[in-house]
Amino acid sequence: MTRQQVLDQYFMDARHKLIEVAAFLDRVDRSEGDADFRLAAFRTALKHLAEKKPHRAKRVLLSFSDPTMKPIAKAPGKGACGAWKAL
Predict the structure, then answer these.
(1) What is the DSSP letter of 82?
(2) Residue among 46, 12, 14 nearest 28 (CA)
(3) What mean pLDDT do residues 8-37 have?
(4) Cα–Cα distance for residue pair 42/25, rounded to 1 Å
(5) For burial by CB atoms within 10 Å, which of 1, 42, 53, 58 has the most?
(6) Average pLDDT for residues 28-34, to the nearest whole number?
(7) Alpha-carbon distance 48 to 59, whole Å?
(8) Averaged over 36-44, what is the pLDDT?
(9) Please, which residues have CB within 8 angstroms of residue 36's CB and are 6 or more apart in sequence?
């Protein structure tokens, strides 16, 4: 696809998602209390979006991922929380 075709096909969807991210951050900023590791991971992912380097999607995904290679004996919870929390 040409750049124009990519823009024509995907711009409105990407615009919608970006507005959703902005609304999420506005809600977080208006709320009280301390943030946790998930917001830190989210802000790291946002920095990767601003970089004009290849493989942004991979770097964004890895900013939420557990970088360790050694398996743990038991999962710390019952479900995924969307970001890695250093134990």
Answers:
(1) S
(2) 46
(3) 97
(4) 10
(5) 42
(6) 96
(7) 6
(8) 94
(9) 85
